[in-house]
Each structure stands twice: as C-alpha cells, then as structure tokens.
Amino acid sequence: RAKESGRNRFQFFTPEMQHRLDARVTLEQGLMRALQRDEFVLHYQPQVNIRTGKVIGMEALLRWESPELGLVPPMEFIPVAEESNLIIAIGNWVMEKVCATMREWLNTGVPVVPVAINVAASQFSVQDLEKQVRDVLERYRIHPHLIELELTESLSMDNPEGTIELMYRLKDIGVAMSIDDFGTGYSNLSYLKRFPVDKLKIDKSFTSGLTRDPEDRSIVTAVIRLAHSLGLRAIAEGVETAGQLELLAREGCDELQGYFFSKPLPEAKAIQFLRDGVSMGFVNVPDAIP
Ligand code: C2E
Ligand code: MG
Ligand code: MG
Ligand code: MG
C-alpha cells in the first residue's frame, strides 16, 4: 500500500472511497428507477391536539419499497437525493401524490384532515416552488388549508430576503407552514421572528430525553414558551410515553406526534384510522371542505 502510494503520489482515491462512491452511484440509479417504476409510497402519522385529544392532521412520510432492498427508510436515501438534486423530482412526486390521494379520499367519502408535507432545503431554494404548489392544488382541487409545509431550519440562508419572500408567497396561497426539527439547526432567531410560520416542531431528540434529562426538559419548555410568545403553536415529535405526554401537557405544548399515539400508517391503515376516528369521535373533519 505504502509502496503503491509512493509510486503514484496523486492518487486521491482509496479503495474505500471508491467503494462508497460506487454505493452512492448505485443508490442514485436505484432512486431514479424507483421514480420510473413507481416504488415510492407514503405513510401517514397522526398529529394530535394535546388538550382535546383529537387528531388535527397527519404528516406524510416517504418510504421506498425497493424490490431488491426491501422497505428503505428516508434517512437512508433523502441525504443522497439531496446531494444529487434528485430531491426535486422526488419532492414533486410527494406533493403530487399527497394531493392525488386527498382528492381520492374526498371523492370516496374518506374523512380528510390536513396533511403536512416535508420540504427539503434544496426544494425551497427553487424559485418556482410557489407556482408548483399553486398548480398542484388547483389541478386536484385541494383547499390550501388542507396542506402544511414542513420546512427545516437548515433552509438556505445565503439569500434570507429571498427565502422570506418565498415564504410569504406560499403563505398567500393559504397553506400552513412549520419549522421541522426545531432546535437542531442553526436557529437565527432574528429570522424566525420574520418567518410567516404557524408552528414549531420540537425535535424528537429533545422529546426523548424529556423525563430523564433536565436539560432536554429545559429546552422543550423554552421552545414552547418561544413559540407562544411569537404567536405560534408548538408540536412535539417522537412522543413515546405517557410520562412525556404528561410533561408536555403541563408545559402547555399544543400538539403531539409519536408512537405513543400512533406509528406512521400505510395508506389503507390511515384510511381505516380516519374512518374509525370519525365514528369514535377522535377525528374532527374541518368544516367547509369542498
Ligand atoms: P421528520 O420530518 O422529523 O419526521 C419524523 C420522523 O420521526 C419520522 O421518521 C417518523 O417515523 C419518526 N417518528 C415519529 N414518531 C416517533 C416516535 O415516537 N419515536 C421515534 N423513534 N420516531 C418517531 P421517518 O419516517 O423515518 O422520516 C425521517 C426523516 O426523513 C423525516 O424526519 C424527514 O426529515 C425525512 N423525510 C420523510 N419523508 C420525506 C419527504 O417526503 N420529503 C423530504 N424532503 N424528507 C422526508
Ligand atoms: Mg417532518
Ligand atoms: Mg421533524
Ligand atoms: Mg425530526
């Protein structure tokens, strides 16, 4: 090995690097084929109002059902999709799929609640995001109040004025917006003040420490206070235990999402959940939805 690199001083690539690059290229090709072969699916995780116990929405979460690899979780392919720009096509697919699914539910009498869609930072910097959202809502005749966009704190702040302007244009459409994984990115509070968002999502890394780590508890309490003082709601993600729920309720957190209430559900289960929820009274369908 030493002899080899001595002979070729400009060899930057180690076999491990080559291997990782190959794996990435394979994954990229797999993702492209997944789009063509329609191998992506969405699961839906309920979000609950802590005070009333009622379901107020669901988050759409992407999965890749690969014939070769099985069910691939998003953390294994979203980062690669982001680096390769495939996230734009995948993000379009998600937006399209959510609206098509909601239209089908509305047409077939499935009780529909608002759905939150994850938007990657690189999708957000595409300036026609506003046009795309308008277009897809119009094509499927989906009321904008039925859609929420989850943005991450790592939104490109190279051009903060442009980002804030785009957020206002999305707000004008009537969709709701939230900041996902709040507290894990770099929080520029002077921008937060100017963002036209509706809620902050407390990252599950803070929720999970809530009942045993006083520091996590302080952070959660502070984020709830911050949200409320800015006129926003706070939702905790990753709620798994009754103890966590109790603390969140005591601190005045507005909403929760987590395995304690429900795991993300495949479409057929989500439909059943919504139907049962309406008949048992834990799902409220928003009024005046055409
Ligand atoms: P996220 O948006 O913060 O979504 C919450 C994640 O926490 C989901 O993981 C969900 O399954 C998981 N989760 C929910 N409740 C619990 C709980 O009680 N305990 C634990 N341990 N986990 C819980 P998932 O579905 O694997 O998604 C991971 C991330 O992938 C998402 O984090 C989001 O950043 C990204 N992602 C998912 N779908 C999309 C998408 O359509 N587009 C984009 N750009 N990113 C997506
Ligand atoms: Mg999310
Ligand atoms: Mg999140
Ligand atoms: Mg998170």
Automatic annotation (TrEMBL):
This is EAL domain-containing protein. Coiled coil: none annotated. Residues 24-278 form the EAL domain. It comes from the Bacteria. The chain holds residues 328 to 617 of 617 of the full protein. It comes from Massilia eburnea.
